[in-house]
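Re-run requested by the PI after the first attempt was lost when the workstation crashed. Everything re-entered from the original request form. Ligand of interest: BES.
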Amino acid sequence: MNIATQPDDAQQAHPIVYLKDYQQPTYLVESVSLNISIFSNGTLVNSSLVMKRQAGASLGELVLLGRDLELLEVCVNGQELRPDQYRLDRESLTIFGAPDQCVVDTQVRIHPESNTQLEGLYQAGELFVTQNEPEGFRKITFFPDRPDVLSVFTTRIEADKKYPTLLANGNLIEAGDASDGRHYAIWQDPTKKPSYLFACVVGDLAVLKDSYTTIEGREVSLELYTEAKDLDKCHVGMQALKDSMHWDEQEYGRAYDLDNYMIVAVSQFNMGAMENKGLNIFNTACVLSDPQTTTDPSNFYVKSTIAHEYFHNWTGNRITCRDWFQLCLKEGFTVFRDQSFSETLQSPAVQRIDDVASLKSAQFAEDAGPMSHPPRPDQFVEINNFYTATVYDKGAEIARMIATLLGKQKFRQGTDEYFRRHDGEAVTVEDLLNSLSDGSGVDVRHFLPWYTQAGTPTVTGQGEYDAATQTYRLSLRQSVKPHAKYPNPKPLPIPVSTALFDRATGQVLAEQMLLLDQPEQQFVFEHIAVEPVVSLLRDFSAPVLLDFAYTDHDLAFLVQYETNGFNQWQAAQELLERVLLKGHDAEPYLQAIAQTVPSLAARDALLTARLLDVPSENYLASRIDQDYEPSEMHQRREALLNALAKRLAEYWPTAYADQPIVPYVDSSEAMGRRAWRNVVLSMAFRAGLPEAVQWASEQYQAAVCMTERLGALRALVWNDAAGAAELSVQLLADFEQCFSDEALAIDLWFSVQSGKPTVTVAEIQALLQHPRFDYTTPNRVRSVTSHFAQNPLAVWTVEGVQFYADLTKHLDAKNPVLASRILQALSRWYTLKAPLREQVKAVLKALQQDVSSSSVTETLGNLLQAE
Ligand code: BES
Ligand code: ZN
């Protein structure tokens, strides 16, 4: 890929890469043999690449990418090269005048033992693991490390026998003793893959084994590797893997293609999990689950993450991305697939609520700030910065819109065609749209602008009823804010799922999927006998902001009568936005909730728990473009929550008594009861009910699972109830002691404290000084930062911002990927009211002198451009 340098001085060190400069690789690698030999003071990597100049690609030298590698030897066709036959720089090794076909052998030394960035091969405790997506492989050996070079990999790993576990992708073909008390294993992966899917693992791990017979009759051995003490936390993940394999066969006709599927749990991992071919590597937080130590949301997330990485085997691995601009081709589509799978694990309405809640709070907020970009960007500096909510969640929404419009059968015909046409290839978003169109017989190519344009579109609408002709006329208009890097947006195809209700009876009068694909359109409903209440974007049929002239009264009606559980929730959210952002009276909301909750709770506790969601302060802030005052918003939101708690004060005792603690069950129903009980408990605190402290104390003691224990602890710690301070301290100490050997539970312990709504920066700093705090474990760092970030009141202070700046500086070299993500919490600094805005700007400007990684430099540059 050509690299164009930007004239701007500040960016010189980190050039911009453009999609338009894409060029086919000059050389392909037909096969690669790796020999990885691990020693305590360094690792030797020998690689042998069978290379071939690609017909039709541009003429050019043979270039291999490599970073932080100590080159010991390079040979072409068995001849060691003299220094004048190649050039080595910080990023690459160029071999002059290489033949069109040749074998390139290199030997390098690397240092996993001191690799804190957690990319390439790194040591985490007594475990050696790899993370190669997107550009980690070049930190292991010299290679054309780009996703459109697909090769067959053979891997020999050698290490001391104190590391009995030696794993790599594919099939184990040989293992045995090596010299000096060492041993080795040779693995061969029969499927061609890009280097970012290479993985190996060396350590001393226990394994849970199972098996699965595919619909094609292949017997697959399933293995989940972890530290011995955590082996009993692997059953949930194993079951989820089998369920996912079955689901993909049923829903997409996709069967697994190798004889084994391995998953390894690692405690130090930047991301959630990674889909390496046949050898997934998972953050322990995303694979280990046990009722005693894991909350319901985490247990649920384990299942959907297992599904996500498994689904990548077809959408990502067998069909991969041509270049990293196409990332949403695999990530967006795969998130849509894991969301669809998750609908089978809890009610579809609640699954949709959860997905949309995170879309709005993460993606809409991102798109409203300086990081705004299309799902398929056309330029970037650091690809690691583009694993974003936009690529993932908006990417998933696009796949969903197409699936909605095509309907189940035609969407399946489209995906069948995609898999038929492109199996074994590295492709683009256009290839996906072409396959879906040709396979289904319905042209969906006009969805391309959804991938290439930035910003959240707004759909503005009005309805008009004409009693004389019994018609209801709906006018809809679409618009999007102009974006400097992506100007001239085209109108988008926007599916608007619509229902009309009889306001007297609550009956549905009409249901229709409208397609708004012009700047402005009118839709007419006939034979409508009474003036209806309209419900739009049911199930959130498109990722847009809706500005419809509902009355608050109509929205309150929808909270009570909408049969689409998602839109029932959505109506409550819209009412709340009006109260919190536009100063509407809270009464219609309070009344609708009070009338709906008691009966709904008896039917569907999970949905009821969600119905009481109040948009987060960060989401609300994302809707305020200037003069944002965190304390004002905080107080407004608190006042609303308190009013809600007081309105139902007499109901909470019955509601709480209705949900006694019962033996643990892992079901949607039981999860709903536990979630609802915790909501009721925190409402009881807010309402100032004298019995609340007692309930929490008893719930903590009687808890049969972490959801109950943590719910009680959180209610106590967060609510500063009269007479509860001492108990909070005591139970925090008890919790820490009980779970002292459970890293993931200790993360929860940190997060309860860092997420406390009244937390101060000094308290956050004290947490970083705690002996259990650890900068080298991203989960631990995030247990403080990500929950703290939910408290804009403390974040948006000079000390709060300085805290972020100091942490960013500290992590910039040690773990730039992590540092860059943490820093993004400050994206919307420029919306703050003066003088804080200028003070924050000064802190960010000063930080520029202290950071140098491409990830952090790019993020900070974006932030500062936003004024
Ligand atoms: N391919 C990614 C993991 C990844 C992302 C590696 C960025 C390197 C850089 C993986 O499939 C993924 O998307 N994981 C998600 C979890 C998933 C459930 C959305 C993650 O790690 O957060
Ligand atoms: Zn993924």
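Saved to the shared folder this time. The pocket of BES (ligand 1) is lined by residues 133-134, 271-275, 304-305, 308-309, 312, 331, 335, 387 (CB under 6 Å).
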